[in-house]
Amino acid sequence: xxxxxxxxxxxxxxxxxxxxxxxxxxxxxxxxxxxxxxxxxxxxxxxxxxxxxxxxxxxxxxxxxxxxxxxxxxxxxxxxxxxxxxxxxxxxxxxxxxxxxxxxxxxxxxxxxxxxxxxxxxxxxxxxxxxxxxxxxxxxxxxxxxxxxxxxxxxxxxxxxxxxxxxxxxxxxxxxxxxxxxxxxxxxxxxxxxxxxxxxxxxxxxxxxxxxxxxxxxxxxxxxxxxxxxxxxxxxxxxxxxxxxxxxxxxxxxxxxxxxxxxxxxxxxxxxxxxxxxxxxxxxxxxxxxxxxxxxxxxxxxxxxxxxxxxxxxxxxxxxxxxxxxxxxxxxxxxxxxxxxxxxxxxxxxxxxxxxxxxxxxx
Length: 363
Known about the structure:
- The protein is of the alpha+beta class and about 375 residues long.
- It has two domains: about 5-95, Methane Monooxygenase Hydroxylase, Chain G, domain 1 (Up-down Bundle), CATH 1.20.58; about 105-350, Alpha-Beta Plaits (2-Layer Sandwich).
- About 45% of the residues lie in helices and about 20% in strands.
- It has nine helices and eleven strands.
- The protein has helices at about 5-20, 30-65, 70-95, 115-135, 170-175, 260-285, 285-295, 330, 335-360, and strands spanning about 105-110, 140-145, 150-160, 180-185, 195-205, 220-225, 240-245, 250-255, 305-310, 315-320, 325.
- The strands form two sheets. It has an eight-stranded mixed sheet, sandwiched between helices.
- A hairpin with a 4-residue loop joins strand 9 (about 305-310) and strand 10 (about 315-320).
- Helix 1 (about 5-20) crosses helix 2 and helix 6 (about 260-285) packs across helix 7.
- The longest helix is centred in the first third of the chain and has 38 residues, at about 30-65.
- The radius of gyration is 24 Å and the shape is globular.
- Residues about 290-305 have low confidence and may be disordered.
């Protein structure tokens, strides 16, 4: 059981030695890569060492129980602990999405439903901002286009972990299953007769790309500047500070107008462009990932949804995992852990099943 662990333990030692070398931190990308690998290996090897120690303690308790029955209770406790650690280690060893260590850019877009959809998009954006705050992550609004009633027609938010995190705890690993169409059922503030309406907003989850991940040829990007637009604010409609980037080879278009300076908007737009190019490159390399990303938001249509938020019943329902709860108010305030983990667990089970099928086919 866990035959690969001695090799991973040796790798952990090699990574620790590399991190201790004086010159490694002069290369930021190399240091970051080693730091992430160290965090992943430390979690796996640490769990394996706990499991191995528990197995040893269990064997000792069984020997002692032959002469002293009082050790029977300890045997039961150790068996439970052994099985818990084995399950955790199995999850850690499941083949992972190579992007799971990434930070993310969350894009929320209003869809069908007019102003009500834009207001719902702002509710979703706040939900992700509060969730990030609860986890101690850093957030930055890269760009936002407000509606007349203060909702968001489109908003892009960068979410970053602080330092290296354990496997499965980075923003992309936890939030990637949020991608898709979110449907809301409630009485809009614009409704005078109290009727419940249904509208939708789309969520895109993009792994934030670093320079080492995506190289963009400046000649491949057309830059257009224009005047910002929106409901008031300094610099809006007064200077050509908004920026539109068009990546000519792929046709991807990114616009940013949130910052006051053209340079800042260009930098923000480039971050989003890199993230979209990374997502596209991964999708082309991995057909399974391609299917996942194609399903994120094909259209922001009410009928094509991953989740429904029903305000009259205070209910949230995820249509992929079957998760349902009646704490919608808490979820929209950022208490998203149970919802997110339902998606993570479903994905982990699918990956485990795939790994077992592959092992069975090769046997």
